[in-house]
Design a protein that fits this description.
It is built from four helices and twelve strands; from the N terminus they run H-E-E-E-E-H-H-E-E-E-E-H-E-E-E-E. Strands 1-12-11-7-8 form a five-stranded antiparallel sheet, with no helix packed on it.
């Protein structure tokens, strides 16, 4: 009842609660991958990469299933107040002799030109240490869920996992994530996933 009364008072005063910032995919930008729902992708004759934005609940389930951790460190990390952006990436070598995927090359870049790579295990441990807290037990198992380090794929091999980034300043109007792998001949194979801030009504 009290909650309803407060909401009614705010409405009467013309005060609207702060709405969460939402970023929508923007496939109209040059260099953008093919977008299907929340999944960006590029499929070529010899390789394929897909990137899917996921919510916190999906991320936690994935961490539990892949890493066997009861606690999602991205839900309990001391530097969590601004949240995280979570993505699932799938890299497939369809016929290349050798295909290399470097997660730290997958940069998240804002409209202010701030750039950051995905969070790895050392960054997670450091975040807890800075805040004088012990990392979750068996935290090293998180490497079973996140892509943490170079991945080399032979013909017919594939690898999937999470790319987790610290959430950006909510004043940022847009951001993008560059996703690519290196093919046998040294050429880059990838795309850019673009997002733009949804206008508040």
């Amino acid at each position: 009842m009290r909650t309803l009364l407060v909401a009614a008072c705010l409405l009467a005063l013309g005060v609207a609660a702060n709405k969460p910032v939402v970023y929508d995919p923007d496939p109209t930008q040059p260099g953008a991958g093919t977008l299907t729902g929340e999944t960006w992708g590029k499929i070529g004759p010899t390789a394929a990469i897909r990137l899917t934005r996921i919510d916190d609940a999906t991320r936690s389930r994935f961490v539990h299933a892949r890493a066997g951790l009861e606690t999602d460190p991205f839900a309990t990390s001391p530097d969590h107040p601004t949240g995280f952006f979570s993505f699932h990436v799938l890299v497939e070598n369809l016929s290349e002799t050798r295909m290399v995927f470097q997660p730290q090359a997958c940069r998240l870049v804002t409209s202010w030109m701030d750039s950051a790579g995905p969070i790895d295990l050392p960054m997670i441990v450091t975040a807890f240490q800075i805040n004088d807290r012990e990392p979750p037990k068996n935290i090293e198992r998180i490497r079973g869920a996140i892509i943490d380090g170079e991945v080399v794929l032979g013909p017919g091999e594939k690898r999937d996992g999470l790319l987790i980034y610290k959430a950006i300043d909510p004043q940022t109007k847009k951001y993008h994530v560059d996703v690519s792998a290196t093919l046998t001949d040294g050429s880059a194979f990838g795309f850019t996933a673009f997002y733009k801030k949804r206008k508040q009504p």
